[in-house]
Amino acid sequence: MKIVAIANQKGGVGKTTTAVNLGAALAEKEQRILLIDLDPQGNATSSLGMPEFEGESLYEPLLGNSPITDKILPTRLERLFLIPADLDLAGAEVEIARMDDHLLRLAHSLRPLRDDNAFDFVFLDCPPSLGILMTNALAAADELLTPIQCEYFALEGLVKIVRVIQQVRDSGANSGIEITGIVMTMYDARTKLSGQVVAEVRQHFGERVFDTLIPRSIRLSEAPSFGKTILEYDNAGAGARAYRALADEFIKRHRSAPAPLPQNS
Asked: pTM for the complete prediction?
């Protein structure tokens, strides 16, 4: 089982869109996926058409008051499971910060899943901030997947993520965390800027960058408002094709994991 944090401290880059649709595409390819919504706003939860839940988030497991296995819910998609989010998670940030092992609360919570090996991949959909929940995700994850919008400040955001990863390593919370994937999102082939940004990110991060480009798509933007993945909402469209291609590439990469990212990148 691999635990993958899907994170970017910048909002609006397609992070939750990628977590939900890559998860769905992998489940379609017979991978067992658990999506954990770590964002108190609950966008991943609503994107899957799940109702609002009270007391079913990761809040109690993070505080050590409930086993994580009690919070796993099935979705309507076969092999895709969810731990939803609720507003209690916002309060968890404050309570966890007071604990001596505050960086390791999520890692401790996830240990039973590692022992059971019931899933092929666990996706941690992180909030768009550099707070306690994101740092807990980086401390618990085997790897980091970062969606980056094809815009001018893309590299600036990546530099910040790399710094945070280094801080997590230096703290001793997770010396093995690496960026293993960068997904370029909202790509517009009609503009020079998109191509230039992709080329620049690839120049700096090489094979970390997925070949698959996620297009800018109205359908991808609309799907969450209907509580559907893009595979359900526009099955044959460009967005669905892109996330299926990304899932193929993701599986292939995990059969032959790339070399670690240099420490000084």
From this structure: 0.92
Query: pLDDT means per 10 residues in the chain (265 residues)?
Result: 92 92 98 96 94 85 93 96 91 84 92 92 92 92 94 81 88 90 94 92 92 96 96 96 98 72 42
* R_g over Cα of the chain: 17
Residue located via tokens 């769905």? 24
* 3-class secondary structure, 73: strand
Distance separating alpha carbons of residues 229 and 136, to the nearest angstrom: 27
Closest by Cα among 209, 152, 217, 178 to 21: 217
Amino acid present at 45: T
Q: Which residues pair with 252 in a beta bridge?
A: none
Which CATH superfamily, name and number, covers 2-255?
A: P-loop containing nucleotide triphosphate hydrolases (3.40.50.300)
259 dihedral zone (left: phi>0; alpha: psi -120 to 50; beta): beta
Q: Tell which residue, 204, 195, 212, 121, has the closest CA to residue 155.
A: 204
Domain spans of the chain, in order of start: 2-255
8 Å CB contact between 40 and 264: no
Give helix 154-171 / helix 192-205 axis angle, nearest 10°: 30
